[in-house]
Amino acid sequence: MKQPFHPVIGIIGGGQLGKMLIESSLPWNVQYNVLDPDANASCKAYAKTFINADLKDKEAIFKLAELSDILTYEIEHVNTEALLELEQQGKVIIPSPKILRIIQDKGIQKKFYLDHNLPTANFSLVQKNEEWEEALSQIKGEKVVVKLCQGGYDGKGVAIVDRSEILKGKFPFNGPCIVEEFISESREIAVLVCSNGIETLTWPCVEMHFDPTLHLVDLLFSPANLDKATENKACNIAVAAVKALNGKGVFAVELLLTSDGEILINEIAPRPHNSGHHTIEACITSQYEQLNRILLNLPLGNTDLVKPSVMINLIGPDNISGNYKITGLEDSMTEPGFYLHLYKKNETRPGRKMGHFTVIDDSILGAKNKALKIKNTLKISAI
After folding, report:
1. pLDDT mean across residues, the chain
2. Is the pTM of this model over 0.70?
3. Which of 135, 162, 174, 316 yields a CA-CA distance of 20 to 30 A from 44?
C-alpha cells in the first residue's frame, strides 16, 4: 500500500541541511534518497538509498534521479550541467538548476542584481591578477571585501583586506574574484522567502552577528530590531529577487542594512539556510517543512513567528581536530525554551559547524540573555 506521501525525494548533498529536511517530515513517512561524497554523511542513516559519490559525478546524479521522483539539493557545489540535462528530459528539480547556474558564480550573481534593478553593493570583477589595480580604482575605501567567484562556502573564499596590501601584490585569492565596497557600520539581516510557483511568502526578518575571523553566523535573532517600514522594505526586496529568479523553493536572501537606511542584497542561497534554523521551533512552519511541502506539491504553511528566538551555531574550536565531546549540556538543558540540534558529525575541525541551539522566550531580551548564558556553558571539547 502506498504511503500518503508516496513520491521519493532525492537530495544532492547529505549534510546537516538535508538531515533537518528529512527530520521535518519524519511524522509524514516521506522517503528520501541521498547522494554525498562522505561515507558517514549526516543523512546516511535516514536514506532509503545512499549513494556515496562526488557531488559532480554525473553518473551518480543520474542514478539518484532514476531512483527518485523529484530532486533537490542542499549545497550549491554540484554538477549543474547534469541537472540541466535532467530538467530538459522532464525531471522535476526544485529549485531549478537554471537558478543554481546564476548563484554558483558570484560574478554572474552580482550582474543579475544589476540587470534586474536589485540593490547591491558596488563591485568590480577581477579575472586575473593584472586587473586588480583597475578593479580597485572603481571601489571606494581603504578596506574592501574580496570573494571568490566560485567555490566559497561557510565563510571560506571571503576576505576583508586593505587595498594597499593588494596593490603591493598580496592577492587574497587566486582565480576570478569580485571586489566590493566594504560598508562599515552596516547590519546584516536576512529574509527567508518561499514560493510554490503561485504563492510567495516570507518569514519575519532575522538579524545576524558574524564571527569576524570565520565569516560564519555566530548568533542570529528574530524578530530583527527593525521598524515596520524597514522590515517591509527588506521583505519586498527579497521577494523581488526571488521572483526575478523565477524561483520555486526556499531561498535565503542575505542583506546589508547601511547606517543611512539603504538595503543591499549581499547573497542569495537557493535552499534552506543557516539563517533559518530557528524556524524549526520558533515558527508555525519551519523552512524545512516548507520545502517538503513545495517538493510534495502541498499548500504552503503559515510562516508566522510563534515566539521570539535566538539561534547560535556550535562551531568546532580552533585548537581541536578529531574526536570530541560536548560539555555543559546538563546545565543547558535546564533552561526553558532551549533546543539542541547536533549534526551527526564524527569529528570536529576548526571552524566546522557541529550543531546549533535555539532558545525561544516570551521576549527577545529574555531569549538573548538565556542564549548568551548557554553559549558560555555549552562547549565542544577534546576527549
Report:
1. 94
2. yes
3. 316
